[in-house]
């Protein structure tokens, strides 16, 4: 698994664009978000975009799992095949 | 409180259990001590949100009578404990530390509550937490901040803040915590106790409020590792009501406690966990001293390269935010104004995150877990710091008015969250003090479903170092 790139692979939106995106997304799922609260939510954007870019850069294709949504099953399988 | 009663308050479950069994220690006595200490200390520490004085004494009286009648149920019988206030107890409110759920009365016991009751444990109340368990520092402007018994101006760590403070202060012998990014191990580290996040799927979450379905773990917090093993023996095991619950058989996690570390291979990561740009030098020094002590007592220290390991924090963050937003979607629509601003804004921040980012993170998680298993296949456990930084003040970790994010605290889960991604069992034990007399934690992480080796190493370290016997300067 390679280390993540140190530069972002996608230019993040600025704070006001983030706030607008969050308010719009909230509206689509029935969660009204005022401008004031959207601005607060947008403050988390840096860490979120940074994490998303780290994840986008990970080379996971070599380990494509059969079911990505069953961590316990994965651990069970791994442990049974490599018990110590 | 007399010295004798204070000593009894700080005894371990491991030491008390045989005395309770033979009748030389009374469950009623130790429950009264727990309630007395809680009455005195809770106004200073805010560790408990709800205390069940009469019910606890009634349960202790029954336990004492049953034991006298020869119906001893095991090491948790007659032991006063606390339950993090996201664990259901029938007829009691489960608030999740939030105004949103201030009237949320549970109709049934959580599976872990039921198992502890059946084992004869005495639940004395609900412990404080970060709102909806979504935060690492431990602050909560709705319930009031839990305070660290080693310095009440300092954070406890979160999200199991009250469980950490209550156990460290000798209010209870053990408490339940939950861990999605480190919420058992971070407060264990900062409060100077033992906290064990079991393997994902080992302990059922039925009746426990969700934060992130694929990363949530429930586990014990106690003053020493052996007590974690005793609590885990009670709460572990398959529950068909939790779809993620493992069907793997449960063994006696305390079976190997006294085997020491001779011959064990302890991996020490070459990357990230000891990076001087990330880890405070006092934290690194204490953890390195702990590793040296293990080496001097027969463990083989094995350097383990893992230059990809920092990715784990990002994977955990994306998965947790996406799932938490889904968990809270309905409540946010109906009760947004009842959330505290920091938690509300954090959850809302993920609304605009593309779905594909979440799926990418789950796929990356699998690759990450395979890489971890391959890197650690020749060692028994990994030894690292639990928390990279020294303990911040509550003021430093409280967002200013009109702000969502505090000045400090984002670094706290950098290491713990990695093992919520892999789901491997991970324990924090106290390994010394920093120059401000605040505890430092050593994190011991094992292979999936091998909690037995993890607690074996933790117990051996405590026996060798004696750090677990330190008491905070609060009375």
Please provide a written account of the structure.
The complex is a heterodimer of chains A (84) and B (475). With 84 residues, chain A is mainly α. Chain A has four helices and no strands. In chain A, helix 1 (15-28) packs across helix 2. With 475 residues, chain B is α/β, with parallel strands linked by helices. In chain B, strand 10 (426-433) and strand 11 form a beta hairpin. Chain B is globular. Chain B has helices at 3-10, 13-22, 27-45, 53-68, 111-118, 161-168, 185-191, 225-235, 281-296, 311-335, 341-349, 355-375, 418-422, 451-465; strands at 48-51, 80-84, 122-127, 174-179, 194-197, 217-222, 265-269, 300-304, 381-385, 426-433, 439-446. In chain B, helix 10 (311-335) crosses helix 11. The chains are: A mainly alpha (84), B alpha/beta (475). Chains A and B meet through helix 1, helix 2, helix 3 and helix 4 of A and helix 10, helix 11 and helix 12 of B.
Strand content of chain B: 5-15%
Which structural class should the secondary elements of chain B be placed in? alpha/beta
Query: Could you give the count of β-strands of chain B?
Result: 11
User: What share of residues of chain A is helical?
Assistant: 40-55%
The major pleated sheet of chain B works out as: 11 strands, mixed
How would you summarize what this structure contains?
The complex is a heterodimer of chains A (84) and B (475). Chain A is mainly α and 84 residues long.
Helix and strand topology:
The complex is a heterodimer of chains A (84) and B (475).
Chain A lengths: L14 H14 L6 H8 L2 H12 L14 H11 L3
Helix pairs in contact in A: 1-2
Chain B lengths: L2 H8 L2 H10 L4 H19 L2 E4 L1 H16 L11 E5 L26 H8 L3 E6 L33 H8 L5 E6 L5 H7 L2 E4 L19 E6 L2 H11 L29 E5 L11 H16 L3 E5 L6 H25 L5 H9 L5 H21 L5 E5 L32 H5 L3 E8 L5 E8 L4 H15 L10
Helix pairs in contact in B: 1-3, 3-4, 6-7, 8-14, 10-11, 10-12
């Amino acid at each position: 698994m390679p280390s993540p790139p140190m530069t972002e692979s996608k230019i993040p939106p600025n704070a006001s664009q983030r706030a607008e995106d969050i308010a719009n997304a909230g509206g689509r799922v029935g969660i009204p978000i005022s401008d004031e609260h959207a601005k607060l939510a947008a403050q988390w954007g840096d860490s979120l975009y940074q994490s998303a870019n780290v994840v986008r850069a990970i080379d996971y294709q070599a380990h494509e799992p059969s079911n990505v949504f069953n961590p316990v099953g994965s651990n069970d399988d791994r442990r049974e095949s490599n018990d110590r | 409180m007399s010295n004798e009663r204070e000593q009894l308050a700080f005894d371990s479950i491991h030491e008390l259990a045989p005395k309770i069994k033979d009748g030389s220690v009374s469950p009623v006595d130790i429950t009264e001590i727990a309630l007395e200490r809680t009455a005195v200390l809770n106004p200073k520490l805010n560790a408990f949100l709800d205390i069940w004085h009469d019910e606890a004494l009634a349960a202790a009286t029954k336990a004492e009578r049953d034991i006298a009648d020869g119906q001893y149920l095991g090491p948790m019988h007659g032991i006063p404990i606390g339950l993090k206030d996201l664990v259901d107890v029938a007829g009691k409110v489960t608030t999740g530390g939030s105004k949103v759920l201030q009237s949320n009365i549970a109709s049934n016991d959580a599976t872990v509550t039921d198992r502890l009751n059946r084992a004869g444990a005495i639940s004395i109340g609900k412990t404080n937490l970060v709102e909806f368990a979504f935060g690492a520092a431990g602050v909560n402007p709705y319930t009031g901040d839990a305070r660290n018994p080693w310095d009440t101006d300092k954070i406890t760590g979160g999200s199991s803040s009250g469980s950490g403070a209550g156990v460290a202060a000798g209010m209870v012998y053990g408490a339940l915590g939950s861990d999605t990014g480190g919420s058992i191990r971070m407060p264990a580290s900062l409060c100077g106790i033992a906290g064990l996040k079991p393997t994902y799927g080992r302990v059922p979450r039925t009746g426990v409020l969700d934060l992130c379905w694929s990363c949530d773990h429930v586990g014990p917090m106690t003053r020493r590792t052996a007590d974690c093993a005793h609590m885990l023996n009670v709460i572990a095991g398959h529950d068909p009501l939790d779809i993620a619950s493992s069907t793997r058989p449960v063994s006696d996690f305390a079976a190997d406690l006294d085997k020491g570390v001779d011959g064990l291979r302890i991996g020490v990561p070459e990357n990230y966990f000891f990076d001087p740009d990330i880890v405070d030098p006092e934290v690194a020094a204490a953890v390195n001293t702990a590793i040296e002590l293990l080496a001097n007592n027969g463990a083989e220290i094995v350097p383990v390269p893992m230059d990809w390991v920092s990715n784990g924090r990002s994977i955990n963050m994306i998965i947790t935010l996406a799932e938490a937003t889904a968990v809270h979607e309905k409540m946010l629509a109906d009760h947004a104004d009842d959330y505290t601003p920091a938690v509300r804004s954090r959850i809302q921040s993920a609304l605009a995150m593309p779905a594909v980012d979440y799926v990418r993170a789950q796929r990356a998680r699998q690759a990450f877990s395979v890489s971890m298993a391959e890197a650690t296949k020749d060692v028994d456990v990994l030894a690292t710091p639990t928390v990279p930084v020294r303990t911040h003040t509550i003021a430093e970790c409280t967002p200013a008015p009109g702000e969502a994010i505090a000045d400090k605290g984002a670094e706290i889960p950098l290491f713990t969250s990695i093992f919520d991604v892999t789901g491997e069992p991970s324990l924090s034990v106290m390994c010394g003090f920093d120059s401000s007399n605040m505890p430092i934690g050593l994190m011991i992480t094992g292979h999936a479903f091998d909690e037995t080796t993890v607690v074996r190493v933790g117990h051996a370290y405590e026996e060798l170092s004696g750090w677990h016997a330190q008491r905070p300067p609060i009375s």
